[in-house]
Amino acid sequence: MKQVLKRYIDFSLRSWGSEMTLRLSTVIILIFTFSVTIFLAQSAFNFKRVMNRWGDNTKITVYLAEGQNEDTRQKIENYLKRIQDVESIKFISQDEAIAQFSKSNSLFTNDFIDDLKEQEVFPESFEVTLNGSIQDTVYLNRIKQVSDKINDQIGVEEVSYGQGWIEKYSAFLRLMNSLVAIIVTLFIAASLLIISNLIRVMVHNQRDEIEILELIGETKSNIRMPFIIEGVVFSVIAYTIGLLMNMVLFNWIANEFAQSTILSHLAGIVAHPELGFISTGLFLSITVGLLSSYFTARSVNTGWALATRSNK
Amino acid sequence: MISFSHVYKTFRGEVHALRDVSFTIPKGDFVFLTGHSGAGKTTLFNLLAGFDRATSGHVMVANYNLADLRDDMVPYFRRKVGVVFQDFKLLNNRTVQENIALPLEIAGASSIMIHEKSNQMLSSLGIADKANNYPDELSGGEKQRVAIGRALIAQPDVIIADEPTGNLDPHLSREVMNVFLKFNALGTTVFIATHDQNLVKDMQKRVVRLSKGELADEASA
Ligand SMILES: Nc1ncnc2c1ncn2[C@@H]1O[C@H](COP(=O)(O)OP(=O)(O)OP(=O)(O)O)[C@@H](O)[C@H]1O
Ligand SMILES: [Mg+2]
User: Fold this and answer.
1) Domains of chain B by residue range
2) Helical H runs in chain B?
3) Does any CB of chain A come closer than 8 Å to the CB of residue B56?
4) ipTM, 2 dp
5) Minimal Cα distance from A4: which residue of B?
6) For residue A280, how far is its CA from the centre of ligand 1 (angstroms)?
7) A312 Cβ inside 6 Å of ligand 1
8) pLDDT tens readout for residues A20-75
9) What is the pTM of this model?
10) B89 has a chain A CB within 8 A of its CB
């Protein structure tokens, strides 16, 4: 290992001058692609975390049909209690519903509200709080199922879980996830090509040297090793710089949030990437560097450069 | 140590660089290879050093049958043969000393040993003052001596040298020959291609002669 590193450092210093422009331009392009990739992934993660914070627990409102007796109400309540994931159930009478409405809509006049009361616009209802919040479609489907079952109960008029916005939100989540996945995949593919190109050009520029080393008896793997390490090193350097740049950026966004009265509680969520995120990124960048440089370097020296050239 | 038997080497376009070449060189011998330009000397050396494969026939070197040599064994075989290339093949981004030390480095020698041995080699070739220069900064004769130093330093079983005195004056040629003789005395088989008839005459060694790819009468050298 020490030997390999020493070789790589030797190799790196020796070819630094001649490959400087190539290396610098590669690392700059890589930093750009990695930064954008990290930014997108980090944004998607943050968005979900924010939604989780906001979404807190999902509420289902079970509206009862008009004029239910105590018995049916009790039956429905018992049924609701037996459902898995139900955290709490709260009965809201007509009066309470009106009180809530008028409290949150103080603009309306008392006359208007009295009017509503007479027309019995506000039915009685159960407010069912479920564990967890909507993060994925699995959870969304579960809510749909539960709601449909409740809907089938006698005495239930309607079940509402904010169908409209939840579905839109989940569609949006799906779209965002696939968009981020596509873009990240594209950028990873691009970095594979960029690194592969770096290695290809370096190998090309050092073709004579590689051939001489082959002739003197250097092994294929020792000849390739510095090129392969080069790919990994550049990938990791670009990732580290890209990550740091993103940390600075998100820190800045968090600071902006902190100064805003409405968003201040999100500052902590936005600020720091999780350790899992960082290590996954590191793993990916090493893999990208390794794969592209390995496969590029593998095909370029056969150990028979001289023979291949003279016999073709 | 070295044995060629019915070796043919044919290049694309029906160029028969070697035709039915058979000879043997026992371990520890000192032999010259002569022949006109284009006679096939470099081609023969390329086969001998495991740089290229014969079209047909058998080449045995240091108990390796080169026709059967597995690809992954080739580098290890090549370390047993020190080669002075006709065109030197020095690494331009390494100093003279680093170039000479290369085979030791490849073999994984310790840095102390590399340092000692390369210093020794530099002085026995008379280029100690150029140790830290790069090949671009050397004269033809100096480059040639670096190439010789690199071929000899790891004490290979066989040394083959393609025109090792082509750029040297008679005095330096003698000096270089003395270095070869020194290694030969230690048991290394030496095989040198040259055009220099005077040198061949002076040295009084066995001569293998090629003529248009075929082995000519040895005695008539
Ligand atoms: N790679 C090749 N492709 C085709 N022909 C080749 C190749 N290498 C050598 N030859 C031919 O094989 C013949 C022998 O060449 P070689 O280089 O072995 O000669 P040589 O004896 O070393 O000559 P010199 O004294 O000029 O170095 C020549 O006719 C040459 O043109
Ligand atoms: Mg030649």
Assistant:
1) 2-219
2) 41-48, 74-78, 96-107, 111-124, 140-152, 170-185, 197-203
3) no
4) 0.91
5) B108
6) 56
7) no
8) 889 999 999 999 999 999 999 888 888 877 776 665 567 788 888 877 788 888 88
9) 0.78
10) yes
